[in-house]
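Obj.: predict assembly geometry.
Materials: sequence records (below).
Method: joint structure prediction, all chains together.
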Amino acid sequence: MNHSEKSMDTIIAYTKRKGFVYQGSEIYDGLAGVYDFGPHGAVLLNNLKDYFRKKTVQEKRDFFEIDSAMFKNPAVWDASGHTSGFSDPLADCRVCQNRIRVDKELEKVGIEADEKMTDKEINTLFDSKRDEIKCYKCGSTDFSEARSFNLLVKSNLGDFTAEGSDPVYLPGEACQGIYLNYKNVVDSLHPKIPFGIAQIGKAFRNEISPRQFLFRTREFEQADTQYFVKPGTNKDHFDKIRQERFDWYLDLGVNKDNLQWSQHDNLVFYASDAWDIEYNYPSYGYDEVEGVHDRTDYDLSQHTKHSGVDLSFNDNGEKFIPYIIETSMGMGRLFLAVLSEAYDEEEVGTEEKSDVRVVLRLKPFLSPVQIAILPLMKKDGLSEMALDIYRELNSQFRCTYDESGSVGKRYRRADEVGTKWCVTVDYESKEDATVTVRERDSMEQVRMPISELDNYFTEQIKQSYT
Ligand code: ATP
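Observations (raw structure tokens):
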């Protein structure tokens, strides 16, 4: 099917049906903006994280991964500017009390706006477009003024009852953990500059209208890299990193026609350049999956100022605060992009008897299930033989064993969750120790000795990385 024919409602229903994503706390009517990953989804999510680690840390000599605690000293969020300035401009519908995010609604009617603008700036733009912005619940255009609403989620540690106890914040962005550990990494591993630190971490935002499935949630994961460079070299690094980040999506099998760059017009005061990679989400259209930012020396300077600890880098006697090139990708948005890209419905069969098969065209290193082992019949020792093959392959590859229903139905079930190969054990297998290997996308079948399966799949998966 064409990408333009895909609908997010179909994909959402599919993710639930096939065990990829469930509404969080569903048996209690759910919790807005919170989702759980089911058995297939958890494996796909982990495969995406593994690939991120492979590309950004393992294959590089100058990158380290950390895993920082979610709770941080509350002073961190003052230094980063989150307690004072991490907010979205919201307005209330005067008819049904629904809240809208004004910057996003302005964008929909063709006005460049973002959450970093002052209330005054946003309200001037809002006033110029009031007739065109409608409440998505009741259709009214009668809204209050826009006001800033802080997104940090508060919690308490230790003394839950004391009224005066200081709140702690859940991370509004994962990357602060990298800035806090920059000095530890420098002191313990002595990297040369430039070097990078990567982290996959959770973030929490009190998003007021989390309405777009995994695209806008209140709890999500970010896969970040922060590259510490000498001031003056940042532009060159920035361009190179931008290219690498774009290629990452192509390596995952995303079609470049569904990706685009968008440069920020309204930069925060400290940033020197900022671009978003946008994916063409079915039904939603192009929107941000990742940000690539040249953040100058802002983050480390702020933490130097607020903590009193000198975070400058000593490069053979030359001391400076490194500039940071940041990349920040939402794992949920990536998951949704990869799934939307791979999801396909295809007419199969003959003219008299046609049928639609759902197939998830994931690259095999991403597939939750890579190989399905199917005995043609449950009897005559075929099950036993298939189970032996399953046990043999299962230690190396993600396999499933399926003996229920016709082989055709089992092929369909496998296709639907992205299983790349089906291995069928039949009567001939008993004679000559060969099996049929059916490939998901072409549906072509080849006969192969059982002894060659291991090498064959290893080689195919290796090739799929590029
Ligand atoms: P937006 O403008 O869409 O609210 P943002 O510019 O605030 O996003 P960043 O703060 O740059 O986003 O966060 C980096 C990445 O984290 C984003 O590119 C996105 O993939 C992801 N992200 C941010 N907010 C959310 C959210 N509420 N739900 C899911 N992912 C998110």
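Conclusions so far: Residues 173, 205, 207, 216-217, 220, 222, 288-291, 328-330, 332-333 surround adenosine-5'-triphosphate (CB under 6 Å).
To do: check interface contacts against the pulldown list.
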